[in-house]
Amino acid sequence: MALAGASVLLVALGLVVLMVVRPSEASPSGGASASQSAPAEGSVDAGFARDMAIHHQQAVEMSFIVRDRTDDEDVRRLAYDIINTQANQRGMMLGWLEMWGLPKSSAGPPMEWMGHTVEPSDDGSLMPGMATDAELEALEAAKGEQAEVLFLRLMTVHHRAGADMAQAAAGAAGTDAIRNLAAGMVRGQKSEMGLMADMLKARGAKP
Question: I want to staple 49 with a disulfide (CB 3.0 to 4.6 A). Which of 41, 60, 68, 93 is the partner?
């Protein structure tokens, strides 16, 4: 199944990044370094890294699904871009948590680092913007243009919430690593939202 393939690639990419991100290495673009104090367990940095890693994982899974359900080169190219970008970013965030000596999951509810929490849900949508189990099943069942439109709509909602989370982290995180990564996410996801709006319009569909 597509989801099984996605999970295997995510694990592989995560392991590669964990091998690359070391405490002795500093990123010239503001990445984590050994000289920078590790953020606390309840920090914005740790909370954002954990929540966005989960958020990104679903975006990658949806992109794998639509990649196998359409022959449209533009949609497939967008899906590949999301897979590569968000899987890499997810690996970076998990690598920083590892380097900081912090657990990769939290016992508390999501979004606490933003000053509010999300109540547990049984529909599979763990955070704002995330697709429900029913929506993922619908995407898996769709083909061709129907799959394209559903993917573009779901990913637009997903990106909008992700950009909001990233904007909050860019302004409140204590490390250059998270601030710089989050600011880049805002720019990238807003750009892709504009692209997806054009792609939906070309298909006679609304976001």
Answer: 93
